[in-house]
Every structure is written in structure tokens, then in C-alpha cells.
Amino acid sequence: METRISPSILNCDFSDLKGELNKIRNADWVHVDVMDNHFVPNLSLGLPVVESIVGVSPIPVDCHLMIENPDVWAPKYAEAGAKSVTFHAEAATAPLRLARELRKLNTRAGIALRPATPIEPYLDILDEFDMILIMTVEPGFGGQKFISSMMNKLRKTREAVDKTGLDVWIQVDGGISRQTIEIAAEAGADTFVAGSAVYAAEDAYAEVEQLRNLAKQHHHS
Ligand code: DX5
Ligand code: ZN
């Protein structure tokens, strides 16, 4: 099992995206949070900005869509060049059709679950997805506190993925820091989003290394 770090740029300096992306060039992915002020009570950025990010990012783009009607919008983010597109289970009308469409566009298809959404309905269809995103905060804002009661859902997901033998990545997003990454790694996450922990650090590059090392040391076995 590989360990991947995907820093969220939600709280970076948006007036210098190129410079901010360059700071995390040692990360595996860059996590781009798209919010529409409907699915979540916040507005971040959309398709044209994602297109620009794809054009200058030294690492592949991991798009997290916190938007309504992903059935219509998610494929456009794949076409814009995001190599991974994650939509919310609560927002999609036809999640399987959408995941298949994303894969046809040569993008990794991810499905995200809000904290109160159970994993059970998805356990029989894990093969339809390349990544499951277990939210560890209510989506909408950076800098919130990690919800540790999500570790049970994470363990269940890891168990099911291992049982199928599929290479489905398990991502955690929300409140990941040096203090919380270990328990998330132990519970079975392999792909870690960290926003404020990385961009509030004095040296974002060094923080990415730090987080990766901690996650590796506490690898689920
Ligand atoms: C929350 C977003 C996260 C967030 C992470 O709605 O999906 O990606 O920006 O930020 P931190 O790491 O500060 O919780
Ligand atoms: Zn996110």
C-alpha cells in the first residue's frame, strides 16, 4: 500500500496560485476543492480556475467537487485535465453511471461521503470507484477539527477494500495534521488531504515530507 499526500489549496494565497503550487511540488497530488454555495455554504472556485491550475501544476490535480448536480458537472472537470475527480454520494443522481463516464474520460473516479453518510450501501460496488473519500469534517471550510469518530467507517472501508483485493484508494479529508494523520493511517487511509496544516506551516514543502513520513510509520497492516 502506497502513501499519498494531497495538500488542499483551499487556504492558500489565491493571488499567487503558481507559487503556491510550486511550494508543494513534492506532494503526490494537489487537492482542489470546488464549492458551489449550494451543496456547501461556501464558494471557492470553478472550471476556468481548475483549467488554469492544470496548466501550471507540477503535480496531478485531485478535484473534490462539493457541488450539486455532479452528474452534469464532474465530466467537465475530467475534460479540463483533472486526473482524479471525486463527487459526493449525497449529490449524485446516478453515481455508477457517473463513475463509469469519468473512467471513460481517463480520469480516476472518486466518491465522497459526508460524515453522516454510511459506507455500507457502497461496499458491494467498490469496484466501480478508484477512490473512496471519507470526510473527517463536514465539508465546506478548511481549518475545522478532525472528527475522530469517523475512524470506524474508515476501518470498515479498509477491511472491505482489502477483502476484494482491489486497488481502491481510501482518502481522508478534513483536520489532517501531524496530530491526526497517525490515527487515520492506522485506521486504513492511504491518501491524505491536508490544507491548513500544510499552508499554515512555515515551510510547506517540509510539512508535506513530515506528514508523509508520519503516515508511512503508522501504516495500517
Ligand atoms: C473541506 C475541504 C477540505 C479542506 C481541508 O470542505 O474539502 O479539503 O480544505 O482543509 P483542512 O486540512 O484545513 O481541514
Ligand atoms: Zn476537500
UniProtKB/TrEMBL annotation:
Cofactor descriptive note: Binds 1 divalent metal cation per subunit.
Metabolic or biological pathway, per its Swiss-Prot or TrEMBL entry: Carbohydrate degradation
GO CC terms of this entry: cytoplasm
Domain of life (superkingdom): Bacteria
Binding, substrate: S8, H64, G140, F141, G142, G143, D173, G174, G175, G195, S196
InterPro entries in the record: Aldolase_TIM (IPR013785), Ribul_P_3_epim (IPR026019), Ribul_P_3_epim-like (IPR000056), RibuloseP-bd_barrel (IPR011060)
Key words of the record: Carbohydrate metabolism, Cobalt, Isomerase, Manganese, Metal-binding, Zinc
Catalysis: reaction(s): D-ribulose 5-phosphate = D-xylulose 5-phosphate
Enzyme class: isomerase
Any GO BP annotation: pentose-phosphate shunt
A Pfam family per the record: Ribul_P_3_epim
Active site residues per record: D33 (proton acceptor), D173 (proton donor)
Similarity field: Belongs to the ribulose-phosphate 3-epimerase family.
NCBIfam families the UniProt entry points to: PRK05581.1-4 (NF004076), rpe (TIGR01163)
UniProt-recorded name of the protein: Ribulose-phosphate 3-epimerase
Annotated organism of origin: Arcanobacterium bovis
Taxonomic placement: Bacteria, Bacillati, Actinomycetota, Actinomycetes, Actinomycetales
Originating gene: rpe
